[in-house]
Amino acid sequence: MTINTNPKFFRTNIRKNFLFNATKKLLLLIGFIIFFSCNNKQGLNLKSIKTPTGWGYIIKNNDKIIIKQSIIPVIPNQKSFESEEEALKVGNLVLQKLKQKTSPTITKKDLILLSIKI
Predict the structure, then answer these.
(1) What does the alpha-carbon distance between residue 106 and residue 112 come to, in Å, rounded to a whole number?
(2) What is the rounded end-to-end Cα distance, in angstroms, of the chain?
(3) Do residues 55 and 73 share a domain?
(4) How far apart are CA 42 and CA 57, in angstroms?
(5) Is 102 inside any structural domain?
(6) Closest to 100 (Cα-Cα) out of 42, 14, 38, 26
(7) Residue 19 or residue 46, greater confidence
(8) pLDDT at position 118, please?
(9) What's 71's DSSP letter?
(10) Does one domain contain both 52 and 106?
(11) In this predicted model, what pLDDT tens digit does every residue of 58-68 receive, in sequence order?
(12) Is 56 found in the same domain as 74?
């Protein structure tokens, strides 16, 4: 039977295991921080725009245009919103739907409920 009486052997193994585990934990922590910081922020904002025939709206995500609506959706003829308020009403509804992660489509019923002149 052999007994290892060299205390350096045990210390170096413990140090290696501790450093390896600490490195893994640090990398995991950094990964979580990056994931949550990138995933959490959604810079959605709404802005009205003046068109030649009326009003429209733009929805941006971190300064990138994701929706530009210059005409009233769903109706057969191409007509802009009559006022800035109407454009912003519909734009706010679309923005709410995007924040809730649902389809941002607008129906004729939505336009009627928002009192949009068709």
Answers:
(1) 11
(2) 95
(3) yes
(4) 19
(5) yes
(6) 42
(7) 46
(8) 82
(9) S
(10) yes
(11) 999 988 999 99
(12) yes
Same domain for 37 and 58 = no
Contact 95, 59 (CB under 8 A): yes
94 and 74 co-located in one domain = yes
**Which residue in the block uniquely carries the two structure tokens 């928002």?**
114
- Taking each continuous run of H as one helix and of E as one strand, the counts in the chain are 3, 3
* CA atoms of 45 and 65, how far apart (whole Å): 10
Indicate the number of domains in the chain: 2
Q: Which domain holds residue 106?
A: 44-113
Q: How far apart are CA 23 and CA 39, in angstroms?
A: 24
- In 3D space, the residue among 67, 69, 66, 61 whose CA is nearest the CA of residue 45 turns out to be 61
56 and 100 belong to one structural domain? yes
71 and 100 inside one domain: yes
User: Taking a C-beta distance cutoff of 8 angstroms, is the pair 101, 74 a contact?
Assistant: no
Q: Which residue, among 100, 96, 99, 101, has the nearest Cα to 110 in the 3D structure?
A: 96
Q: Give the pLDDT of residue 63.
A: 87
**Residues 69 and 55 occupy one common structural domain:** yes
Q: Supply the pLDDT for residue 72.
A: 95
pTM reported for the whole predicted model: 0.64
